[in-house]
Protein 1
Amino acid sequence: MAAENQAAVTPMCKELREQFERDGYLVIRGALNESEVHHYEQALDRVYAEQARAGRLSPEGSMHKLSAVASCPETVGLIDHPNTFPLVWSVLGWNVHIYHSHLDVHPPIRVEKPYRFEWHQDGGRQNRELESDPRPRLSVKIAYWLSDVSETGRGNFKVVPGSHVRNWIDGPPRRDVRWPEPEGAVEVCAAPGDAVFFDRRLWHTRTDNYSDITRKGIFFAYSHRWSYGRDENDELLDSAACARFNPVQRQLLGARLASAGQVPGDHQWGHYPQTTPLHVFLKANDLLDPAYPPLKP
Ligand SMILES: O=C(O)CCC(=O)C(=O)O
């Protein structure tokens, strides 16, 4: 699936940008076709079976495995998928990487779980350590759905539309204290192959899956290369598999791009656009945009 220069040449259109700025998320219907869904689902099932054999599932049998491509190299084609990746560079620009990713499998829950308030914005301490209101976006995330969450109650992703510009939502004094759902919260419904693209500041939560369908999804969070990655890809980047990835994919996975005599940190900071594969690709396709600072030539 990892075709050379897979990144597509269609930037986010004005209407989608307005919708994204208003709601904090977009649903991309049919981002993956049927055979892609099959391919990625099989790969995810393989990792799930390995984790099950190794006794690494949660008590209720779920998997939340970090570093998606390192854990499952077959998923590499998702990271610069032509139907979704243009949304990432349209918003964040070319100096990006994947800082956090996960493979998720959530089988039906048979015994009711204790209540826990799980609403959050992504980024952990970013939400304490940044002082502005609203806090800056910093990252965006794509969720690919491989199971059918087209009806509510199947462990759907739940969001408060428009909440990405609010630093705070009302919540309980402790996470185990039952609390009303935030006003306006909706479960996002998606068919297999749909993707959800969201701003990390969007208040969101996973819901418990009490349906009969195992919930399966793969998540990739993108941020700028000057922010520290949470994924662990060192072994992957040294592996034979990585040699088959295209240059943009290697950039996204955190490959060292500095050449002899260059300070690696300077490269991460974006000092060398001419050897940053996504910049090279966007420039070659005339996709740099003087009107949008992250994409200024
Ligand atoms: O799994 C979900 O539906 C939500 C995932 C989530 O909370 C996250 O990606 O930060």
Note: Residues 104, 122, 141, 157, 204, 206, 219 surround 2-oxoglutaric acid (CB under 6 Å).
Protein 2
Amino acid sequence: MQTNINNKDIEAILNSLIEGTILVKNGFIENVNDALIQILEYKSKDELIGNLATGVLIPSTTEKFLEFNKHIFQEVNLVSNYGDLIPAILKINDIKIQEQDYKIVTIIDLREFREKDTLLFKQSRLAAMGEMISMIAHQWRQPLSAMSSILAKLKIRTLKSKNEEILNFNKEFDNINNYIQYMSKTIDDFRNFFKDDKQKEYLDINDVIDITITMIKPILDSKGIKINVNKKEELNKIFTFKNELIQIILNILNNSIDAFEENNIKNGKIDINLSYCENYLRIVITDNAGGIPENIISKVFEPYFTTKHEKNGTGLGLYMCKVILEKHFSGTINAKNIEKGSSFSIDIRI
Ligand SMILES: Nc1ncnc2c1ncn2[C@@H]1O[C@H](COP(=O)(O)OP(=O)(O)O)[C@@H](O)[C@H]1O
Ligand SMILES: [Mg+2]
């Protein structure tokens, strides 16, 4: 086949590829395509051409390889314009162009694949957990209600007694009964939470907040964290997804709990404020846990962004909140710092 492809044509071909592509000569970047500029978040090629290729491609000390579409590729990290590390796989080929030796490096950005993997993994784990909780709930129901009825019988018997001390047992029986009711209620709440019925319901937002707090209250109590909800009596019902909303609020509360611990704060306090703004319901959650360092506040909603490396933070909590809000609630979430801590504001369209 006789073709006359010139440099312009080669450039047009490279720019039409999905993969990021770098043309390297003697270790220096000779040219790059549009996909690569996009992956690395540069504005133009000129910022890259002439640099050492190892400036954007971090050669790993221990070489790692990865199977992708049944082929084995080298796994590397790319450095973006802003210094972020981007997981990628690459393939290097030697080519000759006009009698000169070049290396052509093609690169696939793995971020999106990784994100899907982790989300899927998280979802399947949630489903498995839901099944387990459901089984526990089932097994506990009978003994819990048996305990309740034994207590009721004991109560009747003590009431017949003339003995002052035995009469006092009654108060204790009531206490035990409250604990039993509390246990049945929490296990039901958890079971409903994990149920996979993604349907909108008419919800009283006050109830949603109550359920969420019931779920997390024992942890808050054990750490001496106070929580205060500013309920809105005049709020009407909203038509929305209950479990997702609970999950979002739980994620934010859990972050506050982490922050209290990290910053060693003794008089932890969380406030939840509800209000209406035009056709939005606004939930503002504030804490006095020291706030989010200003240099990272713009990154907290990014996937995998975490400062909890020792605690195995996933960096997915706030990212999931944002995705769920945008997808299911036509909503938004924002973070800012206030005097002694942070403030997360959620807007849900109603
Ligand atoms: N209430 C808060 N106070 C201080 N920092 C916070 C708070 N909430 C979130 N952050 C910061 O945002 C980061 C991302 O949170 P998240 O997405 O939930 O991931 P993870 O909790 O796994 O780290 C946290 O690592 C933390 O640095
Ligand atoms: Mg978190």
Note: Residues 52 and 62 are 21 Å apart (CA to CA).
